[in-house]
Amino acid sequence: MPDKRRQTTDIADLEKQVHGMLAALGEDPGREGLLDTPARTARSLSFLTRGYEGQLEDIVNGALFTSANDEMVILKDIEMFSLCEHHMLPFFGRAHIGYLPDGKVIGVSKLARIVDLYAHRLQIQEQLTQQVAQAIQEVTGARGVGVIIEARHLCMMMRGVQKQNSRMKTSMMLGLFRSNASTRAEFLSALQS
């Protein structure tokens, strides 16, 4: 799965755009409280979308280890945040990952870093879930991968329907997690504990 690279953020251009946005909102970009807002917002958006500048192979950085373990490996409650590509508002929550090794295991911190790589891009939660699962499958060659993300979306909480307690859950099951009901059930059961 090739990563999409972007050019480094043009901070100066982004600052100009934010300045124009403030003016279009009827604000005075020259007032004291907003003087540094264009620069702060440009740096913030660059940070929040830094996942475009990363590459999967750089994240993994050789942290694959030979292992005879063929039992399920699960990392749950990985805190994550992203920006919705529709409104550029945050969604945030937790990712849960399981995989069935096939001779190799990945360094545990790399699972969280893979989540961050894809979460720090403009997108939708459904796509994020798919990207994480496919990346883990690609890197580990696992016999199966399961990823579940549950998140709260500010685009639903602060605008539109304004539902404060809704959470969205998405899942992606690959290999034995998709084809074998007992493998999937074991994964889902382990997430409950």
Query: What is the CA-atom radius of gyration, in angstroms?
Result: 19 Å
Question: How can the largest sheet be summarized?
Answer: 5 strands, mixed
Do you know the CATH topology of the largest domain? GTP Cyclohydrolase I, domain 2
* Beta-strand segment tally: 7
Number of H/I helices: 8
**Global structural class:** alpha+beta
Total tally of structural domains? 2
Shape: elongated
Q: What portion of the residues fall into strands of 2 or more residues? A: 25-35%
Q: Could you please describe the fold and organization of this structure?
A:
The chain is an alpha+beta fold. The chain folds into two domains: 11-48, GTP cyclohydrolase I, N-terminal domain (GTP Cyclohydrolase I, Chain A, domain 1), CATH 1.10.286; 62-192, GTP cyclohydrolase I, C-terminal domain/NADPH-dependent 7-cyano-7-deazaguanine reductase, N-terminal domain (GTP Cyclohydrolase I, domain 2, 2-Layer Sandwich), CATH 3.30.1130. It is built from eight helices and seven strands. The strands form two sheets. Strands 5-2-3-6-7 form a five-stranded mixed beta sheet, sandwiched between helices. Strands 1-4 form a two-stranded antiparallel sheet. A hairpin with a 5-residue loop joins strand 2 (73-84) and strand 3. Helix 1 (11-24) crosses helix 2 (37-48). The mean pLDDT is 95.
